[in-house]
Amino acid sequence: MRAVVISTGDELTTGRTVDTNANYLADQLVGVGVDVVSMLVVGDYPERIAWAWRTALEQADLIICTGGLGPTADDLTTETVARVAGRELVMDTAVADRIRQMFAAIGRIMPENNLKQALFPSGAIIVPNALGTAPGFRLEIATAHGSCHCVVLPGVPREMKAMLAEQVLPWLGELRRGSDEYRSHTFQTFGISESALDELVAGAVDAADGRVAFRAAFPQISLRVTVHAPPRDVEARLTAAAAKLRERLGGYCYGEGNTTMEAAVGELLARSGATIAVAESCTGGLIGHRLTDVPGSSAYVLADVVAYTNAVKQSVLGVPAATLEQHGAVSCEVAEEMARGVRRLVGSTIGLATTGIAGPDGGTPEKPVGTVCVALDSAGATRSRRYQLWGTRDWVKLLTSQIALDWVRRTQLGEDPTESAILKR
Amino acid sequence: MRAVVISTGDELTTGRTVDTNANYLADQLVGVGVDVVSMLVVGDYPERIAWAWRTALEQADLIICTGGLGPTADDLTTETVARVAGRELVMDTAVADRIRQMFAAIGRIMPENNLKQALFPSGAIIVPNALGTAPGFRLEIATAHGSCHCVVLPGVPREMKAMLAEQVLPWLGELRRGSDEYRSHTFQTFGISESALDELVAGAVDAADGRVAFRAAFPQISLRVTVHAPPRDVEARLTAAAAKLRERLGGYCYGEGNTTMEAAVGELLARSGATIAVAESCTGGLIGHRLTDVPGSSAYVLADVVAYTNAVKQSVLGVPAATLEQHGAVSCEVAEEMARGVRRLVGSTIGLATTGIAGPDGGTPEKPVGTVCVALDSAGATRSRRYQLWGTRDWVKLLTSQIALDWVRRTQLGEDPTESAILKR
Domain for residue A143, yes or no? Predict the structure, then answer.
């Protein structure tokens, strides 16, 4: 099956926004065995959108298009697709009612232009959008080479991703039933570079048994193995290939499938009945934010104190003035006091702390930008380590939060985190 | 001038790598007034690369293509372009000598396939590559509509960027001297839906005077006006169009250009010499994280206490047990106590607090998921308001953080935030 991915939006062709939707779609399509022949990006002009569709229809059995489904005058996808396909636009009353209800529920009068989102090309099958007002749709369009399955989704990534996972990929699975299947399994890793990971797993899976691909979405790197086989064999082959990789990856793998580091940490904490409190300086709340992104995290997250000044480190966390004076705020000694202090303050099983220089200013020759210290305090032991990280402010924050969360994971697994988290540029 | 950007590489069409080159090129081209008509991405197959070039030549006066210039078998761009353009491949002896010298300089024998990088279509003008072995080239190709200027650059971002800045953009500036320019201005808004924003600015700028586009990157929505005019008029016309929009947008606009809400808030705090402390419950650290993403935020962020349990709300923030019992943790009364408590704890000018039910669990008929309370305490006044938000856990957190930051902004501007931040789906 040959697919073309179309992305629309002036923000893409003017360079304001990186087109991550096309990348995400390509990744997901390749995962189910679809060959992405090309990706086309055009701005919000009817003739350019029409051009992209005509061009794609020459090449593809499957088109997935994102963007241009909103209520405003520059949302042109639906009417353009209808024109290219030679279909009328038809108002779907159920969708129109839902949009009216959404406005009524918040006590507002609906601007009339919202009803545009209830218009679809005749023959289209609606793809509901649980997270926004604009539904997508599917449509089969006759082409010179037969016919092409077309899917139109909103450009808002979270809406697009949910609709893809819950509705489009299952439909695509049905469509492709009986043909050889592609099935894949993903491992999430941290603490090892992409090239070192490549070396680590080299030869684990024969090319004939599966294709291994890496995807760096820093700070984690995911590794995916894809098996291509008849439906009756595919599951067993995937299990075998995944087992070989799992063995090689060892502790670098913090989760399988689409899990996140914070979810992996949360599962370990919940399972052991442990609770955590965080004291953050350079990460500024990011660790707390990540921990509390996990549903049910109130079972183990007690508190997070962002102590952005020395005064707060002293008054709230009880870091001794002498420690601050002697070693400076960015030191293992202060990180340890912060971890102990926050644990004492709220009575948690674990106290986790970060302090560092996220930049762009504040660096010195002894402690350049990117110097960070992580500490973890739990019954009977306080551990800390200094790291020299790199990159921009947001990157230093993100990487520090990832290291700190990995410390909790390693500690819960009974390992010494100061030894395991070796970072390579 | 109409441009098409072509990116080649299997890593792009399989979703392994996000195509940041096309984004970068589009941004740079728009900056010098070139209209990017489309962006095409294809994998490393000769027929697909040829297809992309033929397709681009139908549309463009300018093609910029990246990728496929290396020494290996899957580097196919140069030979494919030569074939599409009907040119012979010619060895450039100066380039061949340089490649030989680069290998000699590091004491290695040059694999013969490296000489492939010294082959160019006849008539091409070489674009030297100071940072790598593969030079790029320029070529003018005759088309049905006249001729097309073509530029081929390596896919390695740092090489591509240096060659673009030092050689391609200056050449392009010469080529376009005196022709019309595109210039744009962006407004960032919050507290108004995309459709209501569309109505608010409708008719403010005539189609002939500028093109208005919306982009929802929730929770903010940006609006951009683009003016297309001769070089001598473009600045004045943009200023005039932006002024009309600014007047319509009023307080919904929190910043212009690429600013964020947290940067806008930070600028106001820094300017007035105010300091802030945050007490978060449902947002779990996100407000602190966002505030501290701004370089220099240590000048006004004192602390953030994430009080995820009632015990911590009492012991650290001093919320009275009676208030918690009587009104529940998710209430305006508790939010106000949290705001006062954190302000008192660290002595900040402003205390900001959130409490709510982010979901997916924890809702009740009286306080369903999405119920959140925001409070702000400053000298002489404590204000609070309850909101009924919607969506998933991460969305409730994000939207609450945006409302809370907008409260700080509105307060710093002397407005009553409880009246102004009216949210629409």
Answer: yes
Which of B2, B5, B12, B23 is best to mutate for the A interface (most A CBs within 10 A)?
B23
The CATH number for B59's domain is 3.40.980.10
Q: Are residues A334 and A352 in the same domain?
A: yes
- Please tell me the distance in Å from A384's CA to the nearest CA on chain B: 23
Last residue of a domain, one of B256, B281, B315: B256
Same domain assignment for residues B416 and B294: yes
> Looking at residue A226, which CATH number applies to its domain?
3.30.70.2860
Pair (A252, A372) in one structural domain: no
Are A157 and A9 members of one domain? yes
Q: For residue B425, is it within any domain?
A: no
Q: How many CB pairs under 8 A join A and B?
A: 298
Tens of pLDDT, residue by residue, chain A (425 residues): 899 999 999 989 988 888 999 999 999 998 887 889 999 999 999 999 999 999 999 999 999 999 999 888 889 999 999 999 999 999 999 999 988 888 887 777 888 888 999 999 999 999 999 888 889 999 999 998 899 999 999 999 999 999 999 999 999 988 887 777 778 899 999 988 777 788 889 899 998 888 887 776 677 788 888 888 888 898 999 999 999 999 999 999 999 988 999 999 999 999 999 999 999 999 999 999 999 999 999 999 999 999 999 999 999 999 999 999 999 999 999 999 999 999 999 999 999 999 999 999 999 999 999 999 999 999 979 999 999 988 889 989 999 999 999 999 999 999 988 876 555 43
The helix/strand/coil state of A79 is helix
Helix H or strand E segment including A336: helix A332-346
DSSP state of A284: T
The verdict on B19 and B35 lying in the same domain is: yes
Same-domain pairing of A244 and A330:
no
Tell me which amino acid residue B354 is: T
Q: Is B322 helix (H, G, I), strand (E, B) or coil?
A: helix
User: Do the domain assignments include residue A8?
Assistant: yes
Chain A: nearest CA to B129, how far in angstroms?
A: 24
Are both B216 and B266 inside the same structural domain?
no
> Does the model's ipTM exceed the 0.95 cut?
no
Residue with token string 């670098």: A252
Q: Which residue from B14, B38, B283 is facing A48, i.e. has the nearest CB?
A: B38
List strands edge to edge, sheet with A125-127: A125-127, A136-143, A146-153, A62-66, A2-8, A35-42, B35-42, B2-8, B62-66, B146-153, B136-143, B125-127
How far is it, in rounded angstroms, from Cα B424 to Cα A103?
A: 8
Which domain-ending residue is among B154, B176, B198? B176
- Domain CATH for A359: 3.90.950.20
Helix residue spans in B63-92 (DSSP H): 77-85
The answer as to whether B110 is a domain residue is: yes
CA–CA distances in Å: residue A281 to residues A288, A293, A313, B289: 12, 20, 9, 10
Helices and strands per DSSP (H, E), number in chain A = 16, 17
Q: What is the domain count for chain B?
A: 3
In angstroms, the CA A275 to CA B8 distance is 49
The minimum CA-CA distance between B319 and chain A, rounded to whole Å, is 15
- Residue A155: closest CA among chain B residues belongs to which residue? B216
Inter-chain residue contact B303 with A304, CB threshold 8 Å: no
Cβ atoms of B68 and B76 closer than 8 Å: yes
The domain in which residue B96 lies consists of 2-176
Same domain for A188 and A134? no
Distance CA B181, CA A400 (A): 44
The answer to whether the Cβ–Cβ distance between A40 and B43 falls below 8 Å is no
CB contact under 8 A, B39 and A12: yes
Q: Measured between beta carbons, which residues in chain B are less than 8 angstroms from residue A316?
A: 303, 305, 316, 345-346
Contact B29 A37 (CB under 8 A): no
CA angle B168/B174/B180 to nearest 5° reads 105
